[in-house]
Write a structure and sequence with these properties.
Blueprint lengths: L4 H24 L29 H5 L14 H19 L3 H24 L4 H18 L4 H26 L6 H14 L4 H21 L12 H13 L5
Helix pairs in contact: 1-3, 1-4, 3-4, 4-5, 4-9, 5-6, 5-7, 6-7, 7-9, 8-9
């Protein structure tokens, strides 16, 4: 996609602004706090933040990572979310084959980032995001590639049923939960956006990534409890996006 300088500026500003909003969603949704109506404030001195304090990326850099009122160091969480959102848009520009595909990749990337972050911190994949995400994925397929809608619908069904079956089987064999139903819904979302063909590669990549992150701690003497919970959705998300970018082998 050829992009003018003016459009580049617009894309960067839109990306970091979207990231700023998604940071609010990630931080407030798990705590059941209002997303659109709540006012932002410093978590230390509780001073309400004004427009100049909420400029994506810029405010953090200008204030050197500190509150402009009490001087306390600010958690760079929102900065990282904004930068990841920008990276999603840049990857979408790189791989998009059409304006419609660009919109598709950005939407999926934003959804996956939000889910992955929440799952990493709270071990929760909220239905309010995953279920509409499945429908949006099928709708985008119908809009952009209607001939592939059958593969994507089958991917959603196969993704959900495969992990749901594993969940039931594990529970029957071990007498306890071993897989969250949210993971099955996320794999359904993956199938809705990418089709059924990439589901095995997505799960393989997630398994390898999960083992790669957990094993070093085990080798250093840490313990892995039998009933321990791990954010499988966080491990799945990057491979779903790579599949949509057509970067999976």
């Amino acid at each position: 996609m050829e992009i003018s300088i003016a459009l580049w500026v617009w894309l960067v500003l839109t990306a970091v602004s979207t990231g700023s909003f998604l940071g609010v969603v990630i931080s407030r949704l798990p705590n059941h706090e209002p997303i659109l109506l709540g006012r932002s404030e410093c978590p230390h001195c509780h001073t309400r933040l004004g427009p100049l304090d909420l400029i994506p990326v810029g405010s953090f850099l200008w204030r050197r990572g500190r509150c402009g009122y009490c001087g306390t160091r600010i958690d760079p969480f929102h900065l990282w979310v904004e930068l990841v959102a920008l990276a999603i848009v840049l990857l979408a520009v790189w791989r998009a084959t059409s304006p419609g595909n660009f919109v598709e990749l950005c939407l999926l990337g934003f959804i996956l980032m939000t889910l992955a972050w929440i799952d990493a911190e709270h071990l929760w994949l909220p239905d309010i995001i995953t279920l509409p995400g499945i429908l949006i994925g099928l709708g985008m397929c119908w809009w952009i590639s209607p001939a592939a809608l059958g593969d994507h619908a089958a991917g959603a069904a196969i993704g959900f049923l495969s992990l749901a079956a594993i969940r039931v089987g594990y529970r029957w064999l071990r007498g306890r939960e071993g897989l969250g139903l949210g993971d099955a819904k996320l794999l359904a979302l993956a199938g809705a956006w990418t089709g059924w063909q990439d589901l095995a590669a997505i799960m393989l990549g997630a398994a390898v990534l999960g083992i790669g992150l957990i094993l070093p701690g085990r080798l250093r003497g840490g313990s892995i409890e039998a009933g321990g919970k791990f954010p499988l959705g966080t491990y799945m998300a990057p491979f779903i996006f790579l599949a949509a970018l057509r970067l999976l082998p």
